[in-house]
Prior knowledge:
five-stranded mixed β-barrel; globular; mainly beta
Amino acid sequence: MNQVMNFDLYGASLADVDGRQYASLFVGQAVQDEKEESAKGIVIMKMSCDPEVYQSLNLSKYPASVEAHIRLKKAAGGKMGQHCVKVVGKQAPAAAPTGKAS
């Protein structure tokens, strides 16, 4: 079962290690509590993804608001990790009509 998360995508990377590809997304979130996170502005986080997700990215600009489909995956030390299997770019809302005739 996949979960869906909405976030800003700042970039992505693809690495080839011994013939195997590893891909990552770089996502950001505005700091909510400066004291708790010891940070200001945007906190950038790295999330693993399928190489197909990296190759399917065709966003016109970054950062971009996206909807990411995430599955839970066992990570190092038996911890739970998140792995992205699909990214869908969000459409910008259409401009409201002005009511003027052209």
